[in-house]
Amino acid sequence: AQTSRDSASAREDAMLSGGCSLDDEDRYKLCEPLVLQCPKCTERFDFKGCGALVASVTAANAPSVPDLLACPKCAAAGAMTDPEASMSTPSKPAEVAYKCGKLSGAMLANQVKLRLHDYVARYYDGRLRCDEACGCETRNICCAAQGDAAPGTVSFNSMCTGRMSRVYTEADLYKQISHVVRLLDLPAALAKIADEGKRSEAARLVAPFMG
């Protein structure tokens, strides 16, 4: 069991070692945004992350605290000004969410779970792409032998000497899931505020906007 844990730890370190000297924005800049869907108008919008929320409340002269779970389209249309939009009670969170265009905590959890399922499904789709200009892309594995090529890496194009590799790798999947975890990690975002007083004030201000 210890050997298994050590192997998993080594694999994790290898996946992230290439970006260990980068900050979060650079490390995850190629990751897909976490896309949420409005329960009222079905508009899709990017979840900016807890880091963006904390940054907004600590910025000088910040006009207001952005609601990360609120649909921008509904907000622009004035749905958030509906008196019932502020009646978010534990007894009727879904009803209020559908009325005002804001996701409840349960809706956020469900949509994040669906996005994670999408990422995992893409990995197990197992698409391969050739590293040459022939553009060969397939889910099928060619078992033909060609020089010192590893099994399954030979292109289906017999005229091509390129090698097939995964379009969506294990490292891609790991980094994408790590990105989603980072976006939702409010304690980690707050921990970046050095001043304890400002950190406590930021936590108080952002709490209502994270369901």
Automatic annotation (TrEMBL):
It comes from the Eukaryota. Residues 22-202 form the Zinc finger DNA-directed DNA polymerase family B alpha domain. One of its GO terms (biological process) is leading strand elongation. GO terms for cellular component: alpha DNA polymerase:primase complex. It comes from Pyramimonas obovata. PANTHER family: DNA POLYMERASE ALPHA CATALYTIC SUBUNIT. Gene3D superfamilies: DNA Polymerase alpha, zinc finger. One of its GO terms (molecular function) is DNA replication origin binding. InterPro entries: Pol_alpha_znc_sf, Znf_DNA-dir_DNA_pol_B_alpha. This is Zinc finger DNA-directed DNA polymerase family B alpha domain-containing protein.
